[in-house]
Amino acid sequence: MELNTVKEADVLVVGAGPCGLALACDLARRGVRSLVVEQAPGLFPGSRGKGVQPRTREVLDDLGVGGAVRAYGGPAPVGMAWQNGERMGEHRMFRVAPPTDAEPYGEPWMMPQWRTQEILLARLRELGGDVAFSTALTGLDQDADGVTAQLTGGRVRASYLVAADGGRSTVRRELGIAMTGETVDPAPMLVADVRIAETALDRLNWHMMNADAGFITLCPLPGTEDFQLVAQFKEGEPDTSADGVRAVVAARTHLAAADVTEVRWASDFRPRAALADRFRDGRVFLAGDAAHVHSPAGGQGLNTSVQDAYNLGWKLGQVLRHGAPAALLDSYEQERRPVAAEMLGLSTRIHRGEQERGKATQQLGLGYREGPLSVGRAGALEAGDRAPDGPADGRRLFDVFRGPHFTLLAVGTEAQLPEPGTAALRTHRLPDAYEPYGTGLFLIRPDGYVGWAGRDTAGLAEYLTPLGLALAAG
Fold first, then answer.
1. Phi/psi at 360 (nearest 5 deg)?
2. Residue 208 lies in domain
């Protein structure tokens, strides 16, 4: 990337992981000019964040990549325990529920992180955006009107900056924001993407072996020829070389080192849980791993990160394109930091065996009832709840909600639907009561949560003003 002069952008996104790419896609469909910079020469090559939870599938579907996610991913394989080279039996690692009208995705979806990023980058390019690779942030300054970022190759002036640059965030360090947390497990872990001879191990199960030196698992990754290997080291440090990975497989499984035909990527880490002391500093926001670092147990890290982006994107859009007051952006930390703290606790308890994976890991029950943008209750829902899916005149409610707009939904009520005063607000009516909603009026935010609810429109106009929305005059 060559930046010989100051380049202007509405939002500078630092980091092209799932969080940064999801945010850039959301901003692009809102007409917000973003610039995504990534210090690496390309996308992250590993499978690390491979579990896509049901709520995140709903987010990705809204962003326009649901078809690709279905095509390239698959359900989690059933676990298979091994001992001394013998199969000991299957067990399910995740809660699996049949899809319903209200919850169309009933189980986690397996897809390597590199694939998720490829899909989001392709979508970003469809929307007219791109990523500037091999471009690092080296410094930043901010004032009352914007942020000036020093990058390798030049400078960028932006109205806002979002740090999506991972657990070792350069932006977070520049701002001096501390991370408060703990080591979840002192034993280091090895994670690698490997290929295994077809005759040596089947791809029908998620294979799990325990050894004195620590456990090892081999999970087939849908849509690829790869397995993700995860190994715990009770003593010593993981050797991430190809020979080191092969040696671990040979020592802890019935496979021979030569059965590992290729080591495509490998890394080591210590499971840690940490939360940034704050998610905002002036015109700079922390999102994803820059704001919270999870144990991989339970599959919450990538999912929480994508949903940070989904929460922040529409708020930046309302401020930058629809005249909402900048105070709306205060709600990002107020809503997302408690959710991140809750998910950190969940991941840690699952890692330590104190809680089973269950409905909580699907993130369908998360919401913002205590948040500053949640007002009212009607029928079965309280403001801040996730808006359920369901039939809608030959379509789905998620089809009605899809896009960057708000939706005022009338369910089983004859209450008058007011005329929107902006294209950012649409209306829809379900003539009959629908159990997941009951009856009433529900304002659905662009991120799929109920913002306001009531039996009639009293108080609605006042609620809309701080969001940059209005009803038609008269």
1. -60, -35
2. 189-269
Cα–Cα distance between 18 and 37 in angstroms, integer? 13
pLDDT over 60 at 455, yes or no: yes
Average pLDDT over residues 288-294: 94
| Domains: count for the chain | 3
- Residues ≥6 apart with Cβ < 8 Å to 435: 380
Written as one string, the DSSP assignment of 199-224 is TT--SSEEEEE--TT--EEEEE-TTS
Burial (Cβ within 10 Å: 0-12, 13-18, ≥19) of residue 6: exposed
Q: Which residues contact 28 (CB under 8 A, 6 or more apart)?
A: 34, 124, 127, 128, 129
10 Å Cβ neighbour count for 248?
22
The reply to whether 251 and 120 lie within a common domain is no
Give the closest residue to 235 by CA, choosing from 258, 256, 211, 257.
Answer: 211
Using alpha carbons, select from 318, 346, 340, 321 the residue that is nearest to residue 330.
Answer: 318
pLDDT, position 97 = 82
Q: Which of 244, 269, 294 is the last residue of a domain?
A: 269
Determine what percent of the chain falls in helix, strand and coil, rounding each to the nearest 5.
25, 30, 45
What is residue 3's predicted lDDT score, i.e. its pLDDT? 46
What SS3 class is residue 306?
A: helix
Q: Do residues 290 and 349 both lie within one domain?
A: yes
